[in-house]
Amino acid sequence: MNTPPAILQRLADSVAISSRLKRAGAAAIPFAAIMYLALKGGGYDTVVWGEIGIAAWWLLGLGVAVGALPVARLRARAWTAIALLAALAIWTGLSIGWSDSAERSATDLARTVTYLSVFCVALAAVAADMRKQVLAGVGAAIAAVVVLAVLSRIQPDWFSANETNRFLPEARERLSYPLNYWNALGAFAAMGLPLLLAFAASARTIPARAGAASLASVAGLCAYLTLSRGAVVAVAVALLLYLILVGRRPLKLLAALPALAGAGILIAAANQRPSLIDGVTSSRAGDEMLVYLVVVAAGVAFLHAAISLALVHGPELSFPTPTRRMTAALSGGIAALVLVAFLAAGGTGYVSERYDEFKGSGVGGAAAGTRLQSVSGNGRYQYWRSAIDAGDSKPLTGVGAGTFEFWWAENGDLPGFLRDAHSKLFETYAELGLPGILLFLALVAWLLFAGGSMALRSLGVERTWAAAAT
Questions:
Q1: How open is the CA angle 424-428-433, to the nearest 5 degrees?
Q2: Are 135 and 465 in contact (CB under 8 A)?
Q3: Which H or E run includes 405?
Q4: Residues 240, 245, 246, 250: is their CA dihedral positive or negative?
Q5: What pLDDT, in 10s, does the model give residues 231-264?
Q6: Element holding 412 (H helix, E strand)
Q7: Closest by alpha carbon to 261, among 233, 302, 228?
């Protein structure tokens, strides 16, 4: 016969199991969704991302119904972000009324609504105190994707033929698998770096921290092999913002050094094998690079583990906390020195020359060094100028969501087919006018403000995760 204490124990055990399952699901669902989209060619196909949108809305509805996703606990800043994204979706839907292609505009509306559904699910999971699990699932998925991407370059025989390479010659020399677009893959790796560094700094176990540091090195190599200049900028901005927002910066920088050093070594090793950069990897170069990858990853893991053990068992390191006045004075002094050095070195003339180069429509060289050092816009100046002209032609409405392609076909000043303006900022102005661009900028600014303020107000591990997510 069960006694009351036994019944209470069973009830407590069932609650604990339910909590563990819920937290496991909070990590597994974003991991599975991202991997599905990645392995489906990046999720660009309408059917593919539409499936994710339908699943997300069902998940949100069921989660709210059973109490697993408590949207009522969302704070005002979360509702503000939801309202801004919902307003952008509504304005996108209204543009169907004046668009040159109602079908294209409806597709853009469906995509924006899909973003809204995924965003709401993520915010509801955070409200249920599962932010670490959500970020763990996202970080693990990005890590898996970048590992697959790098392996596809150094051991192409392990993977099926990349269909993109058959149609786009440029795709062969720039790492794009599995997303099938090099700039997207580079940006994806840049998103993963702060998350992996947060793991490396604050995971519960030392092996997990060491593994995350190794994966961060691979993410750095992946971003480089895409030969995407945008990815290089994204990596720099992501790391800088992470280090600005995170607490105990000297310790976080110390935790990041093995990963950054490992990425540098891997990039140097890849540069010594031109076939890796050109996308025609020989079996010898691929085998050598695979050995380098394993050795460097193991070295980063061991070095990071040693640093972690020293920090745990050694004397506690303390660093002086500068006052706001000291920080402002130091920042101002550094900015003044940089400005003086820039002017003394003839920086204005250099910038003017590079701007003229950017406005050209030529394509950069195939070699990594040539491409990454070049600032040629590859036609982007003309695309952006045309997008601005489209927005100026109808500043209150834009030409209609998803229809920049038609504007370019009639008014573009470069030959060739073009669907997108290669800039979400300018394309939003072209297609949705001033209301659309203001909503878009407000959403981005609000997210940065909300994430940054949360990081600066949080302490310990919570601040590390908030900084990485931002």
A1: 160
A2: yes
A3: helix 404-411
A4: positive
A5: 999 999 999 999 999 987 888 888 889 999 999 9
A6: none
A7: 302
